[in-house]
Amino acid sequence: MSQGLHVISQQQQQQDEEEDNEEDGIVGDSYYGDGDSFMEGDLDSEEEEVLDFTDPFSTEVKPRILLMGLRRSGKSSIQKVVFHKMSPNETLFLESTNKICREDVSNSSFVNFQIWDFPGQIDFFDPTFDYEMIFRGTGALIFVIDSQDDYMEALARLHLTVTSAYKVNPDINFEVFIHKVDGLSDDHKIETQRDIHQRANDDLTDAGLEKIHLSFYLTSIYDHSIFEAFSKVVQKLIPQLPTLENLLNIFISNSGIEKAFLFDVVSKIYIATDSTPVDMQTYELCCDMIDVVIDISCIYGLKGAGTPYDKESLAIIKLNNTTVLYLKEVTKFLALVCFVREESFERKGLIDYNFHCFRKAIQEVFEVRVKVLRSRKHLSQIRKSRITPNGTSRVPV
Ligand SMILES: Nc1nc2c(ncn2[C@@H]2O[C@H](COP(=O)(O)OP(=O)(O)OP(=O)(O)O)[C@@H](O)[C@H]2O)c(=O)[nH]1
Question: Is the ipTM of this complex over 0.85?
């Protein structure tokens, strides 16, 4: 597939950057790329103290994604494959989950959310179980349906879950993963999706709740569909998405680039792309490129206690169809992966200059977010300090 991999040496890249920095003075080392670490250092340690189910501030900072579904539908496998690089075959040996597991995915400030993996066998509607509290701060509820199994029970459960959650929090995004589709033929996949879509929506219409919107995705941990679906779910929770898309549009149109994705390197979720349509093969190529870069860096590039991905990470892969894949580090955890025609890549200087401007703009987006979070936190502390231990207000509000 690829004719050659040119992972530019760190030294060379550093020299390039120094030259670039001297020229346009856009990126200073002290500030560079630390949008996230700056956030984590300054905010996360403090946030951890206030992270609990009942605190609305904690959910504002880290939107919560709930992973639900019947037993053995594949919830834990999805989480392990997407966020822990577990190979799909290893999930065969996963034990059944017996308690609610919470995972904070705060590896990047853009992918900064919590996932709650619910064991399938918990009686979710047991009156002693405070589901209101759980749904109240939830950003997205992913309901996993095993498409290889009889899904009637799962549909009933989906209906119950969605209607209960909607009553508590009408702002939740309901995302249905029709999962394990690797075992189905193409026709069967489409038919299953149509059937599940129809039945789930009919149930809602019968209950007079047709205004609830369900989004459906065909997923499998054995291909990229699970990453693609998760990307879409996460993107809906990113308030800056339109700004990021705009920046990408401006960047590609001024640099002769065909397509660009902003990736969270660890999870291979793309948090934004330009407005040209995404095709699965392009996305898969980008994922493969990230794997290649990280693997090569792990094997040959690590120095002492360094990480395989850092501010000097950069890779160029020339394909045999006159396309060039270009990966560059944007922040500590985000990478830009672009598709460029060979002839456009000849103007690499222009691409690199525009990239600097793009990276600077992304850092500004981070900054605004940090400021907003700080002021919200400050407000919430003021409100808290006005409440006496018996719950009454100290001063009139
Ligand atoms: N074919 C196929 N099997 C999958 C897929 N995802 C998960 N599985 C398998 O499904 C089985 C159950 O997966 P789990 O992740 O343990 O399911 P769970 O929903 O977390 O189960 P509980 O913990 O009991 O609630 C495992 O054997 C996985 O290997 C998939 O996309 N395709």
Answer: yes
